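ok posting inputs for the magnesium ion job
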Amino acid sequence: MNVLMISPGYPSEMPLFTRALARVGANVIGIGDGPQDGLSEIAREALAAYVPVKLADEQGVIATVREIAAKTRIDRVACSWEPFMILAAKLREALGIPGMTVAETIPFRDKEIMKQRLDAAGIRTPRHASSTSVQGVRDAVATVGYPLVVKPIAGAGSADTYRVNDEAELERVLPRLRNVTEVSVEEFIEGDDFTFDTVCVDGEVCMYHMAFYRPRALIARDNEWVSPQTVSIRDVDDPHVSNGVKMGYDVLKALDFKTGITHMEWYRKPDGEAVFGEIACRAPGAKLVDLHNYSGDCDLYAGWAEAECLGRCSQTVQRRYNSVSIFKRAEGQGRIQSIEGLEPLLAEIAPHVCVLDLLPVGAPRRNWKQTLLSDGTVILRHPDLQRTLEMADKVGTNLRMRAG
Ligand SMILES: Nc1ncnc2c1ncn2[C@@H]1O[C@H](COP(=O)(O)OP(=O)(O)O)[C@@H](O)[C@H]1O
Ligand SMILES: [Mg+2]
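and the output
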């Protein structure tokens, strides 16, 4: 089977998905921005061929892929990077091959259409409206009410996403939205940010995981001193969260999702109500795939590749661990000057650490506004959730990276 993989080198999980395709026996042809020698070794080794393109130039990519297909039959088009999910669907339609169409993909991209579809299925979404003009936003605000969220209709990574509590804040936020062509205005839901992530085959959920962001995404994004955590939970059947699982299944059914990987976010209100957030028909980013693999002793990369290429999924999820990623942000600006507290910390938690990947002394800090990964990643796991969180907080506070 020949699989065309869009952007096999970026974001950082893509080489692992590309390798997974090769491992299930696919002949993988990569197309992406940038030259072949810019790809990581994992991606290069997994690819049978690579053709550089400008992904933003949709017509150009379609023409190039038609040329490739004239010489080599393409059986599948695979993509797991949000901005190019529609491009992938257009390529499938251009080549007449199976997989998600444009019409099937749009409800996973357009946050207004997404919520309209779910409303029709009786799923609890935040009150919402969309708009392409400043006056339209004001009208939407009047129907949705404060506090609310304004965000791009097809955003990612919390970019251009604002909580707005009153009129004065709205006036401050409106000018910042000038570059966004269409926004979604939503009732602000107090609560926790959860995920529900799956691999499906023919509409059946074969693997699923759930995680929560600690603190909520917007708080982590706005406060540099926070080292954000994501927690993949072991006890997904706990009544505390099981309504989120049910919502996840209902959402997939309402959007008629068939085969591939999905990443849903939902909010758990203090009174326990589950409210839908968003869903994408691609893998989650920011190491969440790895996190789920550590918590479930499974391989989501392989599960996805099997689903895409073979129409089955032989992976089983074991529920023995909670796992947590902590993205460390250094204190101060400039280059990393010192890493403190690591030895005593490891003396206590080393057996539970799965990943320890900190920027070395001398390296420039990453831009904390632009990268979720910040200045270092620690992943650990433990069977007990409380103990997992305690250890994560020690990584957050006792491990200190100083920059200057
Ligand atoms: N209606 C809402 N109520 C509360 N928080 C929200 C709402 N919409 C978005 N957020 C916050 O903003 C974050 C980013 O919004 P989201 O819709 O997930 O967009 P993105 O595609 O950028 O991830 C969410 O994780 C959540 O923390
Ligand atoms: Mg989100």
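notes: Residues 66 and 95 are 7 Å apart (CA to CA). The chain has four domains: 2-99, 127-187, 191-320, 323-404.
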